[in-house]
Design a protein that fits this description.
The complex is a heterodimer of chains A (333) and B (264). In chain A, 35% of the residues lie in helices and 29% in strands. By secondary structure, chain A is α/β, with parallel strands linked by helices. Chain A has a six-stranded mixed beta sheet, with helices on both faces. Chain A has a four-stranded antiparallel beta sheet with strand order 11-12-10-13, with helices on one face. Chain B has one domain. Helices cover 76% and strands 2% of the residues of chain B. Chain B is globular, with a radius of gyration of 19 Å. The chains are: A alpha/beta (333), B mainly alpha (264). Chains A and B meet through helix 2, helix 3, strand 5 and helix 4 of A and helix 1 and helix 5 of B.
């Protein structure tokens, strides 16, 4: 069942255009000019219940705008959104009962009060019964190891502790859908691991649907089965990580270990799909396009001149592929 | 049922107790302000029995009550809303499953409860002792005082909401805060009772909602208003509540629709 349905949504912002200098400033006051900026253009996707989806893209690609529209904070300029049967920007409050959200740089905890007070407030805001609140609270305290933090003021917590409490506050009412906007930003490895483990467990236990944006590739690789890649407001990829790797890894590497120490490279007929990266006495490292040429063909070429002892292939890393796409080196249709 | 509202009131109430020195300084500040005003008026009165129909004793009680109320009316939620808009915390507040206006009204109520308990009451008690104030108010007057003050808290809530939400358009809040504070201090009768202003200005002030924040409840408590006077005040307050509610609703709706949340 598709719990999130997004159909052809676009979002445009009006940005006031300033000219430089004092005269520009006066001009702006007398005749303010605005520019339309398209943050999100005509995107559609659907997410099944219980899925963890990574929503990736460069800074400013339109990730946060999409999430704000999904949570009902922003109204799309055009298009339709439905989250579990509710249109979020029309019935924001009704929608808020079933969702939870973490925005990496914002907090929903009350800065000057002990953590437990924020939890109590959330308990009453989401209209939990006393029994429900207590069982949810105990469950989350145990899972995230919060016992010692409960009576500390939020302002005295470290970044990692704060984020753990933030996540706890988000999951306290057991939402059906959770949006995580950079939940691991600025955290150390251990806290990151702890949070990832928690997300995985909640997803498994309660079938919680999770949409995650992050710049930490490890988050994606560990948590998500599916990724949606957005660039300049448009979706450029939607599918599994593995398919993505196969489809766009146009620079895989193969290392051929040889017996002969002299070089016969000049004799080998090279083509455009492969390229020698490094040649030493013992091995030759080749970068090749796995879509155009297979390893077998490469080995065939080299077999004529070398006695091959061993072959090692290095798949391109997910991170490298993303980098190439962000840089514009890889075209995605 | 109403649990969610009480939750906010409670949290907001507790929040103020964290800053003990801050609260103490607020009391000291109020007492110094009132003392200075009273000393000046003592000098002005000299041997005169009454100025503008008010004798010195009444004026001293007036200031003690007015300045105890002043803190509630000048320190409100517009700063909180403005900072919320500026640093993006409003994102999270809009994700609470409760209407934003109701959320802030509960926040304001919690804040007022705390201000009454730890600032206004102590200020008034200390001033009563310092200036030997006779506390024999009529029971009926006290009741009307409480009623009018409660309505004026609703009025000030909408004023603060409007000023706070204006931050969406100005993107800076300092000017708005100063404007609100000075409007209230001058027009509410905190600086001097309406009797001391020129007639025309007093008449204009009488139409505006600000007089009902401090002047009206204080004079009611002192027994200076007849039943007709009190009815006029109550009617005026109801009208202003309706007007300000409508204005803030319009501003709220347009602001939320065109919301561009800063910082990501």
């Amino acid at each position: 069942m598709n719990i999130i349905k997004v159909k052809n949504i676009s979002k445009e912002y009006k940005i006031s255009k300033h000219e430089n200098g004092f005269i520009g400033y006066i001009k702006h006051i007398l005749n303010p000019k605005t520019e339309t900026f398209k943050a999100v253009q005509n995107i559609s996707f659907e997410i099944k219940e219980g899925e963890i989806v990574g929503y990736l893209g460069e800074n400013g690609a339109g990730k946060s705008t999409t999430i704000k529209m999904l949570t009902g904070l922003l109204t799309p300029t055009s298009g339709e959104i439905e989250v579990n049967g509710i249109v979020p920007y029309k019935n924001r409050i009704e929608n808020n009962f079933q969702i939870g959200a973490v925005f990496g740089q914002k907090t929903q905890l009350w800065w000057d009060l002990p953590v437990i007070e924020s939890f109590k407030l959330i308990g009453s805001l989401y209209k939990m019964s006393k029994k429900e609140y207590e069982s949810n609270l105990n469950w989350i305290i145990e899972k995230l190891e919060l016992q010692e933090l409960l009576n500390k003021q939020v302002k005295n917590l470290s970044l990692g502790q704060k984020m753990k409490c933030e996540i706890a506050a988000t999951f306290l009412h057991k939402p059906k859908i959770v949006y995580l906007d950079e939940p691991t930003i600025g955290l150390d490895v251990l806290v990151k691991e702890n949070i990832r483990k928690f997300i995985k467990e909640v997803n498994k236990e309660f079938h919680t649907t999770i949409l995650l944006t992050t710049h930490d590739i490890k988050d994606v690789e560990e948590l998500c089965d599916r990724i949606i890649l957005i660039d300049k407001g448009c979706i450029i990829y939607d599918g599994s990580i593995n398919t993505f790797k196969i489809k766009y890894s146009n620079n895989d590497f193969v290392t051929i270990f040889k017996k002969e120490s002299e070089s016969y490279i000049a004799k080998i007929k090279m083509n455009n799909e492969m390229q020698i990266v490094e040649e030493t006495k013992n091995y030759i490292k080749i970068k090749y396009n796995s879509q155009k040429i297979s390893i077998v063909e490469i080995i065939d070429l080299f077999k004529k001149y070398y006695t091959i002892e061993n072959v090692e292939t290095n798949e391109a890393k997910f991170e490298e592929i993303l980098k190439d796409i962000y840089r514009g080196h890889t075209n995605v249709e | 049922m109403l649990n969610n509202y009480f939750g906010i009131i409670k949290s907001s109430f507790k929040k103020g107790f964290v800053y003990k020195i801050d609260n103490l300084l607020s009391i000291v500040n109020r007492i110094i302000e009132v003392s200075v005003l009273i000393f000046i008026w003592k000098a002005i009165y000299g041997g005169t029995v009454s100025i503008n129909g008010m004798n010195l004793e009444t004026l001293i009680v007036y200031y003690a009550v007015a300045y105890s109320l002043n803190h509630i009316m000048t320190w409100g939620i517009n700063e909180y809303i403005a900072s919320s808009i500026k640093n993006g915390r409003i994102n999270m507040e809009l994700l609470y499953p409760i209407d934003y206006m109701k959320y802030f009204f509960c926040y304001k109520l919690g804040m007022v409860l705390r201000q009454v308990m730890i600032i206004s009451m102590p200020t008034f008690i200390i001033l009563s002792v310092l200036f030997h104030i006779n506390l024999s108010f009529h029971f009926i007057n006290i009741l009307f005082f409480v009623l009018i003050t409660f309505l004026s808290i609703i009025i000030i809530f909408f004023i603060e909401l409007i000023f706070g939400l204006m931050t969406f358009y100005t993107t800076s809040d300092w000017g708005l805060q100063v404007l609100k504070k000075s409007l209230i201090t001058i027009l509410s009768g905190a600086i001097a009772p309406l009797e001391f202003f020129p007639t025309i200005i007093a008449k204009i002030m009488n139409i505006l909602p600000f007089t009902d924040l401090i002047y009206s409840p204080t004079t009611t408590l002192l027994g200076m208003n007849s039943i007709t006077g009190i009815s006029i005040i109550l009617i005026r307050q109801f009208i202003w509540i309706l007007v300000l509610y409508s204005i803030s609703k319009v501003i709220y709706n347009t602001a939320i629709k065109n919301i561009t949340i800063y910082g990501g």
